Amino acid sequence: MLLVIGLLFPELNNSLPWLSTCALLVFLFAALTDWLDGWLARKFGQVSEFGKFMDALSDKVLTLGMFISLLALDEIAKWALFPILLILSREFLITGLRLVASGQGKVLAAEKIGKIKTVIQLTCICLFLGKIAVENDFKDILPFDVLSSLSYILLLSGRITLVLATLITVISGIFYLSKYWKVFVDEN
Fold first, then answer.
1. Using one digit for the tens of pLDDT, what is the confidence trace for 119-128?
2. Which residues span the domain enclosing 139?
3. What percent of the chain has pLDDT over 90?
């Protein structure tokens, strides 16, 4: 994530070509290798309690770090602060629940709806990174009207996906809390 943000740094990006596209590709690589790691662990029976916890935590660091960074770089509009805070709150709440469960010797694995949530969040980030790449790296290649249209489509798609990601994130959080609430209130 830090490499992606470094590649998006405005002063650096204005001086070197294709950094925004590199940022998108590095982010895609991180997201795909995260998925591949989990798939291989399940396929070869190498799933561990530590791996389950760290996989969920690394997803959160990647997505939340990117959302906050895109906000700070003014690549996501200010209205998106509220949805991103909802996403952030859900992620901290569920991580807290997992830590409480861990203290009780239990591991709460990711649910299917949580995995869908992560895919939608990653797609949203990719759309915003794609918009940045198009605007910065393709301005001398594409005709202005094509560039403008593509940039607008990516922006609109990113905003719609952000709203969808927020809804799925909140729904998955409610689902997860209702399923595991007993971990919080368990006296034993």
1. 999 999 999 9
2. 2-185
3. 51
Confidence of residue 26 (pLDDT cuts 50, 70, 90): very high
- Average of per-residue pLDDT across 159-169: 97
The Cα–Cα gap between 138 and 133 comes to: 7
Give the residue from 70, 90, 60 showing the smallest Cα distance to 154: 70
Helix and strand numbers, DSSP H then E, in the chain: 7, 0
Q: Domain count of the chain?
A: 1
Looking from the CA of 19 toward its CB, the CA atoms found within 13 Å total 15
- Closest of 1, 120, 5, 162 to residue 72, by C-alpha: 5
pLDDT value, residue 6: 83
**Of 123, 124, 117, which is closest to residue 159 (Cα–Cα)?**
124
Label residue 78 exposed, middle or buried (CB < 10 Å: 0-12, 13-18, 19+).
exposed
Q: Which amino acid is at 123?
A: T
Length of the chain: 188
